[in-house]
Amino acid sequence: MSLRITGISVEVTGMSGPTLIATQSSAQFLGVSNNHRRRITQLYAHIMGKYPLNTGEEEADGANRFTQVYANVMIPFTPNFEWIDMVIDEVFPFDISYNSIGATRFQTDVVRVDSGHDQRSSRWDQPLMEYDIAYGVRTMEQLQGLVAFFRSMHGRRDAFLYHDHVDHTSTLATEEEARRPPDISHLDQVIGVGDHSKFKFQLIKRYPTPSGNKEQIRPIYRPQPGTVMIGVGGLQTASWEIDYATGVITFVPNWQKVNLQNMRLEPADGANQWRMLGATGTFTGLVTGDKIITRNWLNPLNNSNEAMNLVVASVAGDGSQITYTGPANYGELESNRNGVGVYRHPAPKPNVVITAGYHFYVPVSFDTDRLPVALEEYGVGGAADVKLIEIRPSEVFDE
After folding, report:
1. Is CB count within 10 Å lower at the N or C end of the chain?
2. pLDDT per residue over 243-275, tens digit each?
C-alpha cells in the first residue's frame, strides 16, 4: 500500500523542558488498499503529548500519547457489504449496440477575450466514449433484453463491456470504398521498442492525421480474448502472456533449460567474464548477445534476476558451454551442481519494434439509474434517452 501525502499540520500549545506538548495533529493524504478499491482521503490524530519514559533518558519509540485517531474512507460496496467489481466481464447485447449512436467527447476550456483571441486548456488527455443505445431498440425482444440487462447491472452501479461496431479493431479503414476496417494482423499497431530490459507493454491504438504529423494514442484496456496477436521485429511470436483486465502484454522466456545436472561455473578470461559448462547441447539455441537469467546455484551470488545484465559473449559450437559478462559482485566457482536453470531474458532486444493486432471492447456503465421505456405499437418497443459512458480504469499505485 502506498500513500500520497498532501498536507500535514500540528498544533502545539507549549513545552515542558525539551519536550513539545502537541494537542492536535492532522494529515491529509490519498491512498488505497492492496486491492485498489478502498480509497483513504483523510487521517487525523489527536495527541496529548510526548515525553521521556524516565527522567534524563532518551525519548523512546511509543512515547506518544494518542487520545483519538480517525480516518475518512471511501469504500464502494453493495448493501450487503460485498465489494463492487470494477468491470464485469459481460458484453452488452450486440443487436442493440449495432444501431446505437456513439460519440467521442473531450473536455476543453476556452477563454475568449474582447479582441477575439482565445486560450484553450484541455482537461482530459483521453476522451470518454458515449453511446446512445435508445436508437438500437427496435423490437419487443430488444426492449425486454435492455430492461433485463439494466436490472442485472443495477443501473449505474456495475460497469460492463461494449462492442463499438464502428471502432473495435487495431486497424483503420484507409480505402475510399471501404465498408469495414481491414482484417487484423500482428503488424497493426506499434506498442513499443525493445531495450533488452523492459518486458511489459501496454496495448495501444494510434489515431493519426492524414499527414502523420500528429496522432492521438489510446490505451486499450479490454482486448477481446482470443484475438490478440504480437509481433517482434516483424515476426509473429507466441512467447507472451496477457492480462485481459488491463491490456498489458508480458513477454516470457522463449528458451529455457531447467534441472540441469553436473553443471560448473568458473571465472573466464577477461574482467567480469564467467564460463558455464554442461553436457553437449546444453546451451544450443542461445546466441551471442542474448541476456540470460540463472537460477538454483548453491551460492546466491551465482543467481541473477531480470534486471541484471548477464549478456552472452560466446557459445561453444557443440553447445556445451557459454561465456557471459556479469556485474562485479556476481559469481563464485561451483562444480557438479544439479538442478540449475538457465533462461533467455524475456525482454526484446534493443531497437526491435514490438507490434500488435487485436479486437477490443470499451468498458462502460449506464449514465442513469432510470430507464424510461414504452410500448409504441403492437409488438414494437422503444426506449428514450438511454446513454452509456466509458469509464476510466482505476488508478494503479505502487505497492
Report:
1. C
2. 999 999 999 999 999 999 999 999 998 888 999
